[in-house]
Design brief:
This protein is of the alpha/beta class. It contains twelve helices and nine strands. The protein has helices at residues 2-15, 17-36, 40-59, 61-75, 88-94, 97-107, 111-116, 153-162, 165-168, 205-213, 258-272, 289-293; strands at residues 76-77, 80-81, 132-136, 146-151, 172-177, 198-201, 218-221, 246-249, 278-281. A five-stranded mixed beta sheet has the order 3-4-5-6-7. The radius of gyration is 21 Å and the shape is globular. The two termini are 30 Å apart.
């Protein structure tokens, strides 16, 4: 219920300039109160959510400076990232009620599901992958690092609650694949550490630039989930007749950027006279199909 109410409030804020300004003021107050109580991760979480929702211009340079100061004083030493074991944001999150809920939930799962960060299914395929994949195992003989791959934004937040990042730092590098645009998320700050190798997949240029401009051990790459598909498997059919020119598969969610698709379709029509037939395949999240149909282009 709380998630639904928060999502509907976000919708109202997105649609109203006045509410966006009010939201910014409220977020600043909440962040100040969290920081005054020594809760730096909570402060960063509130501010970064506001940054993502409001955009950099309305969020403002002063708030951006506060965010940068916050993670530098919590995760830096002598001008650069400290080892991940000294990351105060990670330490605070690991002992938080949220992290405890995550650990409690996964503690009830079978071991095979816990290590893959996947939810159990009846009559499940034991080889089914979860949100955590081992792309390359750690080499005990040579000490060469392995590679752990985290899929979906939720897993990026769950992983530090379930696993010991400082102990993994010497054995694995991490690849993070978020499931939506807008990388102003506090969970990325949990991975700050000079001894931790982290690659962040960032298809969207603003997200790439956001991670790059943090100037930390997080290394952005202009890749995403769709880039792993073998292009040789996709080619035009011999019969050129088709019902749709473009298909978008996505949950009904503001973070999936349907507005960008609609705006591009309108530009193609107005400037080039091209009218494309589009199929939207989705499922309800905190939006519904009705909401998507009303999204302005």
């Amino acid at each position: 219920m709380l998630f639904v109410l928060r999502s509907r409030l976000n919708d109202l804020v997105v649609d109203s300039p006045s509410l966006r300004r009010l939201y910014g003021l409220v977020a600043s107050g909440r962040a100040w109160w969290a920081r005054a109580r020594g809760r730096r991760f909570q402060c960063a979480d509130v501010l970064l959510q506001a940054w993502r929702l409001l955009g950099p211009d309305l969020f403002g340079k002063k708030r951006i400076a506060v965010v940068r100061e916050l993670f530098r004083e919590s995760c830096f030493n002598n001008g650069g990232p400290a080892p991940v074991v000294a990351n105060e944001l990670l330490r605070e999150f690991s002992s938080s009620a949220e992290a405890q809920r995550i650990r409690h939930e996964f503690a009830g799962f079978p071991l095979a599901d816990r290590v893959r960060m996947r939810y159990p299914r009846s009559n499940d395929d034991p080889e089914r992958q979860g949100d955590l994949m081992v792309l390359k195992a750690y080499d005990e003989a040579t000490g060469e690092k392995g590679v752990l791959y985290l899929m979906y934004s939720e897993s990026i937040r769950r992983f530090p609650a379930l696993f010991d990042l400082p102990r993994l730092a010497s054995r694995y590098m991490l690849v993070l694949e978020p499931s939506w645009w807008g990388y102003q998320d506090a969970e990325f700050l949990l991975y700050l550490g000079a001894d931790l190798d982290v690659v962040v997949l960032a298809q969207c240029r603003p997200d790439f630039e956001f991670i790059r401009d943090l100037q930390t051990n997080l290394v952005p790459a202009r890749l995403g989930a769709g880039d792993w598909i073998d292009p040789d498997r996709f080619h035009p059919k011999a019969n050129r007749d088709r019902a749709y020119d473009l298909v978008m598969v996505s949950g009904w969610n503001v973070l999936k950027r349907h507005t960008l698709l609609f705006r591009t379709l309108r530009k193609l029509k107005q400037e080039h006279g091209r009218v494309l037939s589009v199929a939207l395949i989705g499922y309800p999240q905190h939006w519904t199909r009705t909401k998507i149909e009303k999204v302005p282009a």
